[in-house]
Amino acid sequence: MPATKKGILNRLNNNFAKLTPGGIREFDYQASSIPGIIKLTLGEPDFNVPAAMKQAAINSINDNDSHYAPGNGTLDLRQAIAHFMQDRYQLNYDPENEIAVTVGATEGIYASLSAIINPGDEILVATPTFPLYMVVTKILGGTPVEIDTSDDNFILTPTKLQSILDKHPNAKGLILNYPSNPTGVTYTKAQVQALAEAIKATNLVVIADEIYSELVYDGPHTSIASFIPSQTLVLNGASKSHAMTGYRIGFIAGPKELMKPVSAIHAMMVTAASDPAMAAAVAAFGTDAGKEATLKMKEAYKQRRDFVVDALKQLGFNITTPNGAFYIFAKIPAQFGNNDLKFATDLANQGKVAVIPGSFFGAGGQGYVRISYATSMDTLKQAMTNIAEFINKED
Q1: Is residue 393 scored above 90 in pLDDT?
Q2: Which of 124, 271, 341, 361 is surrounded by the fewest CB atoms within 10 Å?
Q3: Given pLDDT bands bounded at 50, 70 and 90, which one contains residue 395?
Q4: Which ranges in the chain are annotated with CATH 3.40.640.10?
């Protein structure tokens, strides 16, 4: 096996030296080797891809739909996405030049940040949150500025934002993820509007990662683009709403002038998403079958959420009840102190349940664990039994 020439190693991208190992995947990988482990770690739906989406992909293959698509995605899919955004959130985007289909929302994050970051630029990130935002910002030579929202029930308030802007007046962008990974918390329309009013007075580019927007349990999802479309890039996709994680279909929507560099960077990175996956996404975003499939999944997630929240509260976990996504961000019982990594490690080894330490999600996460309930009710029942035995054994 070849070894890298030593003289090359000190000539690599210096920004990679700033990165720490990926905590979520690494912890999940280590826990996976424990015999009998129940994993409540990753944010991947346990549902199969709905039949209409699978058939659309099959039809695409059988129709020899195997050629390069336009960089921004097929027009059929961009039209379906435009329909989806208008139907669900009353947002109007031109499918010709205001929507780009990406290889998952992950690529959308990279393309969006690449379009706005110059070396040294500061990007504000409301935390606890998905750590990839900070990682990509660093790779691109930017500086993430974490905004701890834990004192405000994990909601970024206009007051908190203004206090950060006073210290970082030249910040280039703001990343919002709601419903949130890891907290499951989302914003009411009034909260979104108040925050948008504060942002309107700035030149911040808002990257609104709304990949969980279809999984809001009580009340509608309100996109911040409803109030400040001229400075917002909306990220979304089919992975969470339609259980299509492996199909890798996401999208970015925003104003034409802002989308030009985003789309160009996207096309240079991946050329285009695959034709069969895009065909499946047309059925997800553009048909009644796609909408109905999401509603069925959401109802199942809500039942799971209610069960797990009640079970954990009885065991001494402090929880802000999530109103979206499929995560619970639970403050570990007081007798375990504030070391979430030790708690999660001991729970995995002794209780045979794997959860993710909250400190992996940035400022405000210490002392918490993230629990994914994107798995069957039977699995969740056994997991709660195991956690109860672990807690009671430690008392």
Answers
A1: no
A2: 271
A3: low
A4: 51-290
3-state secondary structure of 87: helix
Alpha-carbon separation of residue 198 from 123, 161, 177, 201, 222 (angstroms)? 17, 8, 17, 6, 17
- Where are the domain boundaries for CATH 3.90.1150.10 in the chain? 6-48+291-394
Distance CA 326, CA 42 (A): 10
pLDDT value, residue 294? 98
Please, what is the Cα angle at 387 between 385 and 391, to 5 degrees? 120
Pairing of strands 122-127, 173-177: parallel
In this predicted model, what pLDDT tens digit does every residue of 237-274 receive, in sequence order? 999 999 999 999 999 999 999 999 999 999 999 999 99
pLDDT tens digits for range 191-201: 999 999 999 99
Helices (DSSP H) in 117-204: which residue ranges?
Answer: 132-139, 158-167, 189-200
Whether residue 128 has a cis bond before it, omega within 30° of 0: yes
3-class DSSP state for residue 261? helix
Specify the CATH architecture of the domain 51-290: 3-Layer(aba) Sandwich (3.40)
The separation between CA 189 and the C-alpha centre of its own chain, rounded to angstroms, equals 20
Which residue type, as a one-letter code, is found at position 315? Answer: L
Beta carbons within 10 angstroms of residue 159's beta carbon: 10
Amino acid at residue number 246: G
CATH superfamily entry for domain 6-48+291-394: Aspartate Aminotransferase, domain 1 (3.90.1150.10)
Interatomic CA distance for residues 352 and 376, integer angstroms? 17
User: Do 106 and 238 meet the contact criterion of CB atoms below 8 Å apart?
Assistant: no
| Chain segment 320-358, per-residue pLDDT in tens | 889 999 999 999 999 999 999 999 999 999 999 999 999
Model's pTM, two decimal places? Answer: 0.95
The strand pair at 99-102 and 250-253 is best described as antiparallel
Structure tokens at 199: 């942002």
